[in-house]
């Protein structure tokens, strides 16, 4: 690992005279780890997880030395001081109202409990609260008399940060919100919001016997309203139903609550059935304590997008009827995103709704996203390849050119939508990488040009007798190795070429080798260890994610045991275990440039890591349920995450902000794929639908229906003409991506209101369906010549 650190650390350290600060500089949501001499140092307090860097600069030649505040305090720090500097905290604290003082005391109490004395002192000094803070519990006391009140206050602070969007009040990527139990950092106990704080709004109860009448009255009004308004106002049924039911339960009207649930739960949309099943189990006030669904509903306002006309109609009705009970819920628990213009149709609304917290706010998708590709470095390709172009059939030269444009390689002009080259520090190309790129370019000349009339062949790797239970698969970019993660906690690596896998010789044998010889890389390999399969032991739970590094030297695996492991493919041993998640890690993926990788898990956050830092560089918090899948954008500046809260989020690697929220899936999301040009994102979920998104405009632009079960894998062909999808329904389907993305309506009006018009029939885009006998498709991969490789484990019926 020392070699890795030496190779890579300089990437982070290298000073950039005119560019932005290197990635691990102090940012909200940032937790730089330790590097070698001269890199960014940080004082780590406590275990895994990151936080907001709070302290001042100084030391080693002006290198910043941030003091790290743990994540539970991060929300407060992010709202009080977005820059993370204690000086900003001073400005924010002047003239504090009493509620703010309570909040501040809660943060001070937390800092004391976490043994972060230095940060506590700075905050106190700046806030002039030395005397007043004394009452919040004795120093060094972990569970002081004020501890319960403090946790309630902390949760309120976190809730105030808000779970969605990069708005000014939100901690964005900086800190886990209250909805996500703070399962990171140094907090020993689950920092669940205190029930009394979270449920305080449910005390304003009306007459329990009237709830059914209120709801029926509104239902009757909506069903009798004009068709154009009915579809929009019908969105109110579900959130109102949930909040009215919870209000009855909280105020201990159990029989009324049961009767209310039985009478109206059948009216709700089919895609909320799973949530309703959880809700039906909450029949007593005690059940609400620590219930995640409950907390999600209270701490994140349910978002409805409604036209101004429909909203005025609703408001007038509720005021005329003096229906304060429903109006209070609308005001307290719902966020109504009003737009000017025509109301949306039922079909348009159905396409966009279905997530745990309603639709995304329009503001959430307005930030600028650099979705273009970075300019590839100039690499001289040997001449014999260039000459071949003319000799072959006419299609060949045309074939090579678009690929080069789409990759950006050799293109002289910069993509106008691309981020600046130095926006985030990326590793420099090694000689071996350059050779690999040349090989890639040679393969490109022989690539098959795909389209509706020329579909790819599919080679299926079936894992037979996989009694260990196949849970993850990955294939290297050059298609030479395939890795499988298994439920018996092993990772197995196969060579799918005649070249066998060999380990490096022992240290004593290596000392005998002539290091100056040309074939030294060949000589260090031990022929006695050659085999087609290597088994990697180290995890203590099922392995749910696997990812090869672009240079094929490393393999990442993530597991139920809460760790991500980095394996060397030279020695087939574990180099590092990254511990930050406290719960199962469902997925991990290397950046297309190597060095960085991302992981997502049951603790509802995704983390960005660098191979030579043992703590995460960024924590992406905002999802309301497990993060099931993670993917890097081709330019490595963004990370997409798909979650069980039925949303997809796009995060900016530079500052940890959430820049896109996509809603529309009706089930947990299990697969993501970016188009090779970086403009589009495809997502697949348990609802069997594949949705297509325009990243620049933040809009849904397509819906592919056909699968009858969870879509586990998505992959675009190398030129982006075809999208392949693999599912638990034992099929691989190929879709015409060119046709799906042409003639898109992405005018300003559509973007502003979400009046999307999806094609009626996605069957026109389906190019082929390929059945397996009884093998769910776990992974798909396009080789450099556009052959499809698919993989899965045979499951006898």
From TrEMBL:
Residues 45-62 have a biased composition (Gly residues). The keyword Zinc-finger does not apply. Gene3D superfamilies: TFIID subunit TAF5, NTD2 domain, YVTN repeat-like/Quinoprotein amine dehydrogenase. Residues 381-392 have a biased composition (Acidic residues). Residues 1-65, 381-435 are annotated as: Disordered. One of its GO terms (molecular function) is RNA polymerase II general transcription initiation factor activity. WD repeats lie at residues 463-504, 536-571, 578-609, 620-661, 662-695, 704-736. It is found in: Nucleus. CDD domains: TAF5_NTD2, WD40. GO terms for biological process: mRNA transcription by RNA polymerase II; positive regulation of transcription initiation by RNA polymerase II; RNA polymerase II preinitiation complex assembly. PROSITE patterns: LISH (PS50896), WD_REPEATS_1 (PS00678), WD_REPEATS_2 (PS50082), WD_REPEATS_REGION (PS50294). It comes from the Eukaryota. SMART domains: WD40. Residues 206-334 form the TFIID subunit TAF5 NTD2 domain. Keywords: Nucleus, Repeat, Transcription, Transcription regulation, WD repeat. One of its GO terms (cellular component) is transcription factor TFTC complex. Residues 404-415 have a biased composition (Basic and acidic residues). Homodimer. Component of the TFIID basal transcription factor complex, composed of TATA-box-binding protein TBP, and a number of TBP-associated factors (TAFs), including TAF1, TAF2, TAF3, TAF4, TAF5, TAF6, TAF7, TAF8, TAF9, TAF10, TAF11, TAF12 and TAF13. The TFIID complex structure can be divided into 3 modules TFIID-A, TFIID-B, and TFIID-C. TAF5 forms the TFIID-A module together with TAF3 and TBP, and in TFIID-B with TAF8. Component of the TFTC-HAT complex, at least composed of TAF5L, TAF6L, TADA3L, SUPT3H/SPT3, TAF2, TAF4, TAF5, GCN5L2/GCN5, TAF10 and TRRAP. PANTHER family: TRANSCRIPTION INITIATION FACTOR TFIID (PTHR19879), TRANSCRIPTION INITIATION FACTOR TFIID SUBUNIT 5 (PTHR19879:SF4). The TFIID basal transcription factor complex plays a major role in the initiation of RNA polymerase II (Pol II)-dependent transcription. TFIID recognizes and binds promoters with or without a TATA box via its subunit TBP, a TATA-box-binding protein, and promotes assembly of the pre-initiation complex (PIC). The TFIID complex consists of TBP and TBP-associated factors (TAFs), including TAF1, TAF2, TAF3, TAF4, TAF5, TAF6, TAF7, TAF8, TAF9, TAF10, TAF11, TAF12 and TAF13. The TFIID complex structure can be divided into 3 modules TFIID-A, TFIID-B, and TFIID-C. Belongs to the WD repeat TAF5 family. This is Transcription initiation factor TFIID subunit 5. It comes from Vombatus ursinus.
């Amino acid at each position: 690992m020392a070699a890795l650190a030496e190779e890579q650390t300089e990437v982070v350290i290298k000073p950039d005279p005119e560019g932005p600060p290197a990635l691990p500089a102090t940012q909200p949501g940032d937790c730089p780890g330790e590097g070698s001499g001269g890199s960014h140092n940080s004082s780590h307090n406590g275990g895994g997880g990151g936080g907001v860097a709070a302290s001042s600069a100084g030391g080693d030649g002006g290198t910043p030395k941030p003091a790290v505040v743990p994540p539970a305090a991060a929300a407060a720090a992010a709202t009080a001081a977005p820059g993370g500097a204690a000086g900003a905290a001073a400005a924010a604290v002047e003239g504090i109202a009493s509620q703010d003082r309570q909040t501040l005391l809660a943060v001070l109490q937390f800092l004391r409990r976490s043994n972060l004395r230095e940060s506590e002192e700075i905050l106190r000094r700046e806030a002039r609260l030395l005397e007043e803070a004394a009452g919040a519990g004795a120093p060094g006391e972990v569970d002081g008399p004020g501890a319960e009140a403090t946790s309630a206050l902390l949760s309120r602070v976190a809730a105030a940060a808000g779970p969605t969007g990069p708005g000014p009040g939100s901690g964005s990527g900086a800190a886990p919100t209250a909805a996500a139990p703070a399962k990171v950092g140094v907090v020993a106990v689950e920092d669940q919001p205190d029930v009394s704080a979270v449920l305080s709004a449910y005390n304003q109860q009306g007459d329990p016997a009237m709830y059914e009448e209120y709801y029926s009255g509104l239902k009757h009004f909506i069903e009798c309203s004009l068709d154009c308004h009915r579809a929009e106002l019908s969105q109110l049924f579900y959130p109102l139903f949930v909040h009215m039911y919870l209000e009855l339960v909280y105020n201990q009207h159990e029989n009324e609550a049961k009767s209310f649930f039985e009478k109206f739960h059948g009216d709700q949309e089919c895609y909320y059935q799973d949530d309703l099943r959880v809700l039906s189990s909450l029949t007593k006030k005690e059940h609400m304590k620590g219930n995640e669904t409950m907390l999600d509903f209270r701490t994140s306002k349910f978002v409805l997008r409604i036209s101004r006309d429909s909203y005025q109609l609703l408001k007038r009705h509720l005021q005329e009827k003096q229906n304060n009970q429903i109006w209070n819920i609308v005001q307290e628990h719902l966020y109504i995103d009003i737009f000017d213009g025509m109301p949306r149709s039922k079909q348009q609304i159905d396409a966009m709704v279905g997530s745990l917290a309603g639709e995304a706010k329009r503001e959430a998708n307005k930030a600028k996203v650099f979705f273009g590709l970075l300019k590839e470095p100039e690499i001289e390709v040997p001449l014999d390849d260039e000459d071949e172009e003319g000799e072959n059939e006419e299609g060949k030269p045309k074939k090579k050119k678009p690929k080069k444009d789409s990759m950006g390689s050799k293109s002289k002009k910069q993509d106008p939508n691309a981020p600046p080259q130095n926006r985030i520090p990326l590793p420099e190309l090694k000689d071996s990488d350059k050779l690999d790129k040349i090989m890639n370019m040679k393969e490109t000349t022989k690539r098959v040009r795909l389209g509706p009339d020329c579909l790819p062949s599919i080679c299926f790797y079936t894992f037979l007798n996989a009694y260990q239970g196949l849970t993850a698969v990955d294939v290297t970019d050059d298609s030479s190795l395939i890795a499988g993660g298994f439920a018996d906690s092993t990772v197995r690596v196969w060579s799918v070429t005649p070249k066998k896998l060999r380990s490096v010789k022992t240290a004593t044998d290596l000392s005998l080798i002539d290091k100056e010889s040309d074939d030294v890389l060949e000589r260090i390999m031990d022929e006695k260890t050659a085999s087609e399969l290597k088994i990697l032991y180290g995890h203590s739970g099922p392995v749910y994610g696997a990812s090869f590094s672009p240079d094929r030297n490393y393999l990442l695996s993530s597991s139920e045991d809460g760790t991500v492991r980095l394996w060397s493919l030279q020695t087939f041993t574990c180099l590092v275990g990254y511990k930050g998640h406290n719960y199962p890690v469902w997925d991990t993926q290397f950046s297309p440039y190597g060095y960085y990788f991302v992981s997502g898990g049951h603790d509802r956050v995704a983390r960005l890591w660098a191979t030579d830092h043992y703590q995460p560089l960024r924590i992406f918090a905002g999802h309301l349920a497990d993060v099931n899948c993670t993917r890097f954008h081709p330019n490595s500046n963004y990370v997409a995450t798909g979650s069980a809260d039925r949303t997809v989020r796009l995060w900016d690697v530079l500052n940890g902000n959430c820049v896109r929220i996509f809603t529309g899936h009706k089930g947990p999301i299990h697969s993501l794929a970016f188009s090779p040009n970086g403009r589009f994102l495809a997502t697949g979920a348990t609802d069997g639908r594949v949705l297509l998104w325009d990243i620049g405009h933040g809009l849904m632009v397509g819906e592919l229906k056909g699968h009858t079960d969870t879509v586990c894998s998505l992959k675009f062909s190398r030129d982006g003409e075809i999208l392949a999808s693999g599912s638990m329904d034992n099929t691989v389907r190929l879709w015409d991506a060119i046709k799906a993305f042409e003639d898109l309506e992405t005018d300003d009006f559509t973007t502003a209101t979400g009046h999307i018009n999806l094609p009626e029939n996605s069957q026109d885009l389906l190019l082929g369906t390929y059945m397996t006998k009884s093998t769910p498709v776990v992974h798909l991969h396009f080789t450099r010549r556009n052959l499809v490789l698919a993989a899965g484990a045979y499951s006898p019926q």
